[in-house]
Design a protein that fits this description.
disordered N terminus, binds heme C
Amino acid sequence: MRLVVLVGTLAACGTGTNDRAGKPALAPSVESGPGGAPRTPAPRERASFQRLHMTERFADLLQMERALVAGELDVVREYATALALDRTDADLAAWSAELAQMREAALALSEARDVATAVRREPVLAVACARCHLVAGAQLPISDAGPPPDDGTTSMRMARHQWAADRLWVALVAPSGTAWRDGVAVLADPPLPFDELAPHVSPDARTRMAELSLRLRALADAEQSVDDLDRWAATYGDALEICAACHALAR
Ligand code: HEC
Ligand code: HEC
């Protein structure tokens, strides 16, 4: 299977994490743009085309995650194609092997024929980003905004799920163990009562939703202390698969 081959190739670059323990975030997170839209990056001291493109990539990948969770494969494929074909980063030539791996991963994602395949290939792409950040010694700004409060409603719980999925994603791309633990901690919350979650679905669908929600929690529980990039990628894919499966039942 292609995915396994890719992960294996990327794994050869070695793992590690990029945390800056105790330091405040360098910039507000990209994910805070209105309606999830990519924000125009503010000019900064070390502003460069390299940075600008990175910020776009960051936003693109986040949009891919949103689309995967919502089951919108076409959107994912469009973003992935754009990323695979992008040739604007002449400054990245120093890391041409890593760049080639990122493009290969983006191309594989752009060719995914179903959501189940795409949720496996998107994390491979995120790991390809991370491999270059490790090699290049790049430090990614990570927002220190916490999760939305849990008031027991479905929409707040889903906002927390979204926040957690974003943290796992940033953890992969940076890579960052702190962001990883933040994300899994929120996903390990006890599930909501199911009649509240989706009052309109059939009893059968509700039973399957209950199973999915327990699986998500068990997954998060098991991952609290894991510190391995490839394992993170697999778990992130598992989580997105569960999100997408439950949303398909709720429709
Ligand atoms: C070939 C190497 C390479 C690849 C591949 C790569 N990056 Fe980067 N990235 C860098 C470097 C180098 C920097 C540091 C740039 C700087 O400090 O000006 C960086 C910085 C960043 C930043 C921080 C920008 C900022 O505002 O400070 C983000 C976000 C980012 N990358 C996202 C991504 C995403 C998402 C991907 C994958 C889709 C990706 N990168 C793939 C090399 C890479
Ligand atoms: C057990 C089922 C279940 C799981 C698992 C689940 N969701 Fe949801 N989600 C729902 C339901 C039900 C809704 C309500 C909207 C609907 O009917 O489609 C929803 C809605 C959402 C919304 C839209 C919220 C709003 O207020 O419009 C987001 C964002 C979301 N989920 C994110 C996630 C993410 C990210 C994950 C995985 C980490 C996830 N969900 C896992 C059941 C689930």
